[in-house]
Amino acid sequence: MTTVEVPHGSRSVVLRVAAVIAETADTSSLVFDVPDELREKFEYKPGQFLTLRIPSDRTGSVARCYSLASSPHVDDQPKVTVKRTDGGYGSNWVCDNVKAGDLLEVLPPSGVFTPKDLDENLLLFGAGSGITPVMSILKSALARGTGKIVLVYANRDADNVIFASELRELVDKHQQRLAVIHWLEPLLGLPTSDTLATLVAPYSGYEAFMCGPKPFMDRVHDALGQLGVPRSRTHAEVFNSLAGDPFADQAPVEVSDEEAADAATVEVELDGEVHELSWPRKQTLVDIMLAKGLDVPYSCQEGECGSCACTVLEGKVEMENSEILDPEDIENGYILGCQARPVTDRLRIQF
C-alpha cells in the first residue's frame, strides 16, 4: 500500500502501525506506535476516536473516524477497530490494505462520548462494531472506577461478536461488577424498545452510553425513555462519512470593519478557563476560537462527527447542519461549535 511520511496539515501526524489484529472475519484492529514526543498530543479519554486519512484514486484522500477500543488506563498503545461495511470505501480499504509497519496519517484523539465520572454505575449498549468505544469505556471503568457495569451487546450471530474472548475474561475477573448480556438475532430476533426496556429496567438509574446502527439506537432511546432515564444521563455516539478534508489547515478568518462592529460577544469556557471573544455573525464558533489560538476540540467542521459539541448557557445560536444532534439535545442547549453562528448579542458557552 502507499504510505505517507509527511503530514498534510499542522494538526495531523504520521504514525506507524505496530500490529494488525484480526478480531472477526470482517473486523480488524490497528494498533499504533506513538513515539515519546507525541505521547502528550495523543493522550485520550475512554470512548474517543481517531480520524484516519485514507488514500483515494478519485479524490486523493477521504477522512474516516474510527473509535478507540483501547483504554488509556490499561493499554500501552492506542488501538482502533474497523469493521467492513457494504460499500464502505474506508473500512474495506483498511481491512484489505493495512499491515504492520505501514504509516498512516492521523488526527489527534477527539470526541465527547466519554464518561465524566468512571465511578458511576454504567449501562452500556453496543451493536456490531458499536462495541468499539463502549469497550474503551468498559475497560477504563473497571480499571479506574468503582461502579457496577452492565453491557447489552447485540449481533447478527455469535461469529460476529467482536472482543468475545476479552469480554469473557473481563467477566471472569470482575464478576461482582460486570455483567455482559449478549443479544444474538438467531436466538432472540431483533431487539425492540419494549424488550430492551424490560431487560434493563433494574438498571434504569445507571448512566447510559450507546453506539451502533441508527435503528438499534432509536430503540434504545425509546426503551430508556419508557424507563424515565433523563436525557442528560443518556449518551449516543454517531458517525457519518466525512465529505471534507479535516487534515487541511484552515484558512485565516477575514473580518471586515462592518462585521467587527456588529459582532456578538461570547464567553467560552474551555478546559476550566473562560475566554471572552468577539464573534462576527458570519463566522462559526470554531473559526473564531482557532483564530485566537485556542485548542478547541474539532475534527470534521461539517457537523458530522460531534467533536465540537458544547453547551449554550446563555444566548442563542443558529446552525446550518445539526442533524447529528437529537431534538432533545438541542432543547438541552447542546450545539455544534463548527456550525454555530450567533443570533443574540451576548452568549456564554461551555465545552
UniProtKB/TrEMBL annotation:
UniProt KW Transmembrane keyword: no
PROSITE patterns, sorted: 2FE2S_FER_1, 2FE2S_FER_2, FAD_FR
UniProt cofactor(s): FAD
SUPFAM superfamilies: 2Fe-2S ferredoxin-like, Ferredoxin reductase-like, C-terminal NADP-linked domain, Riboflavin synthase domain-like
Domain 2Fe-2S ferredoxin-type: 264-351
Transmembrane segment boundaries: none
Entry keyword set: 2Fe-2S, FAD, Flavoprotein, Iron, Iron-sulfur, Metal-binding, Oxidoreductase
Keyword set includes Phosphoprotein: no
Origin: domain of life: Bacteria
InterPro entries for the chain: 2Fe-2S_ferredoxin-like_sf, 2Fe-2S_ferredoxin-type, 2Fe2S_fd_BS, Beta-grasp_dom_sf, Cbr1-like_FAD-bd_dom, FAD-bd_FR_type, Flavoprot_Pyr_Nucl_cyt_Rdtase, FNR_nucleotide-bd
Record-annotated FAD-binding FR-type domain positions: 10-116
Protein name: Ferredoxin--NADP reductase
Species: Nocardia xishanensis
